[in-house]
Amino acid sequence: MTLTLIVAVHAAAAGGNWLGTLTAIATALAWGVAVSIVSQAAVSRLLFSMSRDGKLPKALSLIHERYRTPHVSLYLVAALSLIIGIVFLDAPDVLTTLVNFGALTGFCILHVSVISHYRIRQRSHRLLAHLAFPLIGLLIIGYVLISMSAYAKVLGLAWIAIGMVYLAILIKRGKGVHLASEI
Q1: Cα–Cα distance between 44 and 16 in angstroms, integer?
Q2: Are residues 24 and 8 in contact, defined by beta-carbon separation less than 8 angstroms?
Q3: Taking the alpha carbons of 93, 96, 102, 105 in that order, is the dihedral positive or negative?
Q4: Please, what sign has the CA dihedral across residues 10, 15, 20, 26?
Q5: How many CB atoms neighbour CB 140 within 10 A?
Q6: 48-92: pLDDT as tens digits
Q7: Are the beta carbons of 7 and 24 closer than 8 angstroms?
Q8: 21-43: per-residue pLDDT in tens?
Q9: At CA 122, angle to CA 121 and CA 123, rounded to 5?
Q10: What is the C-alpha to C-alpha distance for residues 107 and 118, in angstroms, rounded to an integer?
């Protein structure tokens, strides 16, 4: 049960259904707006930097003259957020699961990267910090990923496949990834 729902249930018990509904709407709007603004700003800046590095269309790296913000990226993220919100309006649990799949997959990659960078490249002898802890984290997150619904796994893996195809296209065009050791 989400915190918003818990608060709404208690408000309804204290003041009736009207207070529960009002509390749920106010809480969702307050948290939703705050989280949306931060998320959209972060994602638009990520798209901006990827565009500036030649990984995405150049239009996404345009800066607004007056506000000095990546306005095209901001508009794109806002439009996509609106579309995704409408599509998943009746299935917020599916959307949450997909977001969790993406975040957890990213954390798995992070743990593998720690092992690769410190243990393999730098030949670190700190086994606990650079091997044991990342492996434990990888196992825990891997278990959570495996325990997700089949729907989330299929959609998440499809999204990863699309990303891999896009990466292959970038590599074929000579715009592939650059490892930290190459920079």
Answers
A1: 41
A2: yes
A3: negative
A4: negative
A5: 13
A6: 999 999 899 999 999 999 999 999 999 999 999 899 889 988 888
A7: yes
A8: 898 888 888 888 888 889 899 99
A9: 95
A10: 16
For residue 73, what are the contacts with CB-CB under 8 A and spacing of at least 6?
43, 44, 45, 47, 48, 51, 60, 61
What percentage of residues in the chain have a pLDDT greater than 70?
A: 95
pLDDT of residue 183: 46
Length of the chain, in residues: 183
Q: How confident is the model at residue 98 (pLDDT cuts 50, 70, 90)?
A: confident
What pLDDT shows up at residue 178? 62
Q: How confident is residue 180, by pLDDT bands cut at 50, 70 and 90?
A: low
Among candidate residues 97, 171, 143, 88, the one with its CA nearest the CA of residue 163: 171
DSSP string, the chain: --HHHHHHHHHHHHH-HHHHHHHHHHHHHHHHHHHHHHHHHHHHHHHHHHHHTTSS-GGGG---TTT-S-HHHHHHHHHHHHHHHHHTTT-HHHHHHHHHHHHHHHHHHHHHHHIIIIIIIS----HIIIIIHHHHHHHHHHHHHHHS-HHHHHHHHHHHHHHHHHHHHHHHTT-----GGG-
CA gap 68, 63 in Å, rounded: 6
Q: Which two tokens stand for residue 70?
A: 């990546």
Which residue matches tokens 């607004």? 64
